[in-house]
Each structure stands twice: as C-alpha cells, then as structure tokens.
Amino acid sequence: MTISPHPMSSATTAVLCSAALFSHLVRFQDGIYEDIVPFRHLQGYRKRFKDSEFDAAGLIDVHIPLQPWLALYGYTRLQHLCSSVGRTESMLLYGAYFGDVELLDALATAIPDIYAGHSLPLAEMAIIGGSLRTVHYLRTRQFTFPTESTLYLAAKHGRASIVEHYIPSSLSCYQALRLAATGNHVACVELLIPHCTPYFLSQAMMLAVRHVAIDSVRVLYAGGGRLFSEEPLVDAATQGRLDCLEFFLAQDETKPRPRDMRQASLTGAIQGNHVELASHMLSLADDVFVEPSHVAEAMRHQSVAMVELLWAHRETRWRVDIMPTWVNEYAKWMDAAAQSGRLEMVQCLVPKGDNTSVDWYKILVDATRARQAQIVNWLVESGKVVSDVPTLEQLMVEAMDPSKSHLKTSTMEILSFVKSLLPSTYRLPTSVVEEAAKNEAHVFRFFIDLWWPTHDLETRASVGEACLLAAAAGGKQKNVKLLVSHFHIGVTSAVVDAAKQSCSSKNLIAYLESCQVE
C-alpha cells in the first residue's frame, strides 16, 4: 500500500522557509552553549585555595555532560563553551583536575590570554587530581605551587606518582607521611617511609591508629614504625573499632603492654558509648578493670545499657576506688538524670545505691524547674516524695518560672498533674495568682481558673484589679484581655498609666484606653 504524503499547508511552508527559522537553525548548529552542554559553574575557587573547599561532586557534575561533548566535537568548538567567565573557569578547573592537558592547551590557543586573566588554583587542582603531566604543563603557564606544599597535598589525597616525583627535592617528608597515613593512602606511605626517621614513623603510627587507618598501620609497622603509647587506641575504640588493637596484640613485639592496650580500648569503647564493644573488652581478658572515669563517662552519656553492663561486673572487675566514687557521686548522678528527663536512668540507679543519701525533694524541684513532667509524675507516684500541700504549692510556683515559658506542653502537664493531687478544699494563695498575671497566658489561665471559684465577689474584684495592673505593667496583652473580657475587670487610669510607664505595645495601650472606665 502506498501512502501519499499530505501536502504541507502554505502557512507551514512559510514558517519552514522563513529566514528567521533558518538563521536560528544555523545558530544552533554553530553552538548555543546553554542548549549543548548544561553544566553548572564551579564557585569558590580562588588563588587562596583551601583544601576543605574542594568540591569533588561539583567537578563530577561538570564531567558528566562535558566529557561526551568533548568526545564528539573535540577541541575545535571550545569558544561556544566559554561564552561566560563562569563557564570558562569551570572548563579550566575541569581540565586541571581530570588531567586533560590537550584541553588546557586548546583553551590557550582559542583564547590566548585565558591564563593571564584568571587567579584560579589550577596547580592545586592538578595535584589533587593526580596528574603529574598536568602539574608540569601548568608550570609552563606560570601556575606554580611550592615543592613542600605540592608533596603534602599529593600525600593527603593519595597521589603516589606526584609524591614519588617530589620526594627527592623535599626538605622534610614527615608532614607528607602523616597526611598520607591518616588518609590510609598506602602507596604514598610506602614511598615516604624510607625518607623518615624512626621517631617520625612512630608519630605517624600514632596518627594512623587514631584515625583507624589500619592499612597504614600495617605498612608503617613493616617499615619500622612502632606504637609507644596506648592512648591512640582510646580514639580508635571511641569510633567503635578494634582493628588496630587486634593487629598489635597479634605481634610478637609490642611496646605498650597488652593489658594497657586492652584497658585503653575499654576506655574508648565506654567514651564512644559502644556497649557491645565494651562488653567484648571485659570478656577478652581478666586483666581489664572498670575505673571511676568509666562510670562517670557512662553517666555523662546517660546510657542505661552501659551502666547496667558496668554494674554487672562490680564484683570482679571494679577497682577498689570505684565504690567510694559511686557513693559520693550517686546523688549527683540521680539529680542529673532527673533534670535531663531520663526516667530509665533514674529507675536504673534506684536499686544501685543508698536512697537515704538522696534528697528526693530537691530532685523533684529540679525536675520541675527543668519541666521534666515524666520524672515529676514518677517521683510522686512512686512515693519518693510526699505529695502534701506545701510540696504541691512549691511545684506550682516552680512551674511558673517564665524562663521556661517556651515549654508550654510540659509546663501544663506538670500543673495539671499537681492540680489532680490537691484536696477539694484547697484554696490557692492570692500572691500566687497575682504573680501568675505577669506570666504567659496559658499559665495565668490555669492559676486564675484554680483561684477564682474559691473566693467571694469582693475578693475577686480586688484581686482581679491587682492582676490586671500586674499584667498591664508586664505587657501581657492576652492576660489583660482575659481579665477584661472574660472576668469583667474594669480598666482604671492606673492600669493605663502602668502600661504606658512600662513601655508596653501600642496595641495594648490602645486596647486599655478603649476599655477605660471614666
């Protein structure tokens, strides 16, 4: 079957043959940069380059669209990519990092003064990228970098070819070794070891252990490096790693005693709050002991699991000086746990010490001040504190502290809980409700609702006026409106004057003046 094409309309023909469309198509073929390669500009790269500002992801973003374009068109149409300063800089940084010397040279040909007009860290980018050829090329373009700094930067990023080239001309290789070791760049470490003294090898070993660069540790040890202190093992265990400890324990020659290394690793495990690791260390050998600082660290982390683990070993692994520390610090730890709202920790500690040494009333007050409603409820319901009226009143006063006014939910939880414990005949002191008038609206509403039903009309009127005066002087507009509109307290000139003298908001003053009783 033959399908005859429909003839184009005259309008379509006119558009396709128009000079405007033709010129647009030609321009597209000639290169419109935003349509051909939509890569983003790399920003933040200037002459004073900071290694911390290096953006590898940004360079990858440029590489993804640019590499296929270069493979297709080569270096003959670079002017279309360099239509702005930002794109030109991105091209230069790309070429330096990915070691594309041909691109850098082609850019210099297409734009003769391109290197004269930019203060980009091209040499640094070439070093980080790892192309020695590019580093040499950029030197011919006056992009140089000090020899020592070149070695350090290459070692930090694991660029072995550049490290090997610059070692003979470097005055000191230790800085480069420590950077390579902490980065776990084994090839660079192997190159630098012969150029460092045993002392510097031991220093690099300490850093490698601290950073848990286990491959560097093995290479340094084989090259004569030794660990002369167990302290770095603390840092390794803090990160939850035992690789380095296991390596050194497996060696015939270890300067720190195995017991000291195990003890240091236990300390690190506790400092890092790694319960399983700490448990493993305690089961590894009988010469590992719990120290007072270990218990203090567990308390600092508020880790119930760690405290339970250490407590379980109190008969066999606690040093003799721990129990006095436990007794002396027990009440402080209990108070700290309560103030931070860690009910599990409080309940964990209760059976592990002398409760008669604990001032439970103080802990209750401190927990209320910290707005730890869960702790307050538990202390009262468990019978740790007697919930008599004076105690409950004190809790209400503490919960009224305006410094914690942002903790509305927990404040109201505590106040509601206290209210549920008050006897039905309870009468709130007038001084408390007057003080509450200076507080946030939700707090004042609680106290005025508790106080109001238990007093006669005359007392309500006089106390209401005092509360209105206090609220106006404190600039509490919501409290003022509540007293005026809901409790029908009249606004006097004294109230208006109090608001003006305290520099209250214009809206509050205007509201009071509109409600003022003549």
UniProtKB/TrEMBL annotation:
Superkingdom of this protein's organism: Eukaryota
Coiled-coil intervals: none
Name assigned to this protein: Aste57867_1969 protein
